[in-house]
Amino acid sequence: MTAPKSERRDPKAEIARLIDIMAQLRDPKTGCPWDIEQDFASIAPYTIEEAHEVADAIDRKAWDELPGELGDLLLQVVFHAQMADEGGMFDFADCAAAISDKLIFRHPHVFGDESRDKSAEQQVKDWEAIKAVERAGKAERGTLDGVAMGLPALTRAIKLQNRAARVGFDWPDAANVLDKISEETAELVEARDTLGPDALEEEFGDLLFVMANLARHLEIDPELALRRANAKFTRRFQSIEKALATDGRRPEDSDLPEMDRLWDEAKAVEKAQKT
C-alpha cells in the first residue's frame, strides 16, 4: 500500500544516508571486516543473486517483500560505487548521471524535438538505431558485440539471437525451429551413443540454444518459464514428501512407482484448482 505523500520519505535523503552507511562499513579503521575485504569480483555474484530475488518476488506477486528486495539490489550498486570511489575511478553520482544521460539520449521523442506520434514497432527500430550509435562509440562494430558475457546463459542466447535476427539471420517461423530441434535431438542421441563427453556436451548446448530460439519465436521468456517449471517441480515433490510423511516415511523409503503415483495425484489436484 502506498503511503500518503505527506508520510513518504525523502528519496534524496535516504540515498545519501545509504551512501554514508556504505562508506562507514568500508572504513579501513572502524568499518566491518567483511565489507572491507570485498572487491568487485567477490561482490558481483551477490549482485546477480539480488537481481534474481527481485524477479522472484515479482513473479510471486510478493509486493510486501519487493521494497526490501529492491533495497538489497540498490545496496549492490552503492557497494560497487563505494569501492570505485575508494579507487579514484567513479562514484555513485557518476552512475546516476550515466543512466540519466542514457535515458535522455535514447528518448528524443520525450526529451527532444522528435514526435511521439509513432508506432511501437517504429519506436523499437529507432531504439535499436540509437543503441547502434552508442555501440559504435564504444568501438563495438560487430553485430554481437556488447552482449554481456555475465548474463544467465538462456538470457544471453536470446540477446544474441535477437541481434542476429535484426540483420536477417533468423528462421522465418517457429515451425522451422521445431524442425531444427528434431535435428539437434537426433545429433544429441548420436553423440551419446558414439562420441565422447565433450561432443555430448556440445550437442546438448546446441539443443538448449535452439530451445531458447523457440522461446523467442513463441514470445516466451525462457528464464521465467524455467523458473516457473522449477517452482512447479518443487511444489509437486513437496506434495510427495507430505503424503509419505503421513505414515512416517520419507522419499528414500518409497520407490519410483509409488512416487510417480503421488506425483500424478498432486498434478491432478493442481489442475482441478485451476478449473
UniProtKB/TrEMBL annotation:
Q: What is its EC number?
A: 3.6.1.8
Please give the Gene3D superfamilies that the UniProt record associates with this protein: MazG-like
Does the entry feature the keyword Hydrolase, yes or no?
A: yes
Arranged from A to Z, the UniProt key words for this protein are:
Hydrolase
Enumerate the Gene Ontology biological process terms.
dATP catabolic process; dGTP catabolic process; dTTP catabolic process; dUTP catabolic process; response to stress; TTP catabolic process; UTP catabolic process
Show the InterPro entries listed in the entry.
Answer: MazG-like_dom (IPR004518), NTP-PPase_MazG-like_C (IPR048011), NTP-PPase_MazG-like_N (IPR048015), NTP_PyrPHydrolase_MazG (IPR011551)
The superkingdom listed in its UniProt entry is Bacteria
Database matches in Pfam families: MazG
Gene Ontology MF terms: ATP diphosphatase activity
Q: What reaction is this protein's catalytic activity?
A: ATP + H2O = AMP + diphosphate + H(+)
Record-annotated NTP pyrophosphohydrolase MazG-like domain positions:
38-111, 177-236
**Family membership noted in the UniProt record:** Belongs to the nucleoside triphosphate pyrophosphohydrolase family.
Q: What is this protein called?
A: Nucleoside triphosphate pyrophosphohydrolase
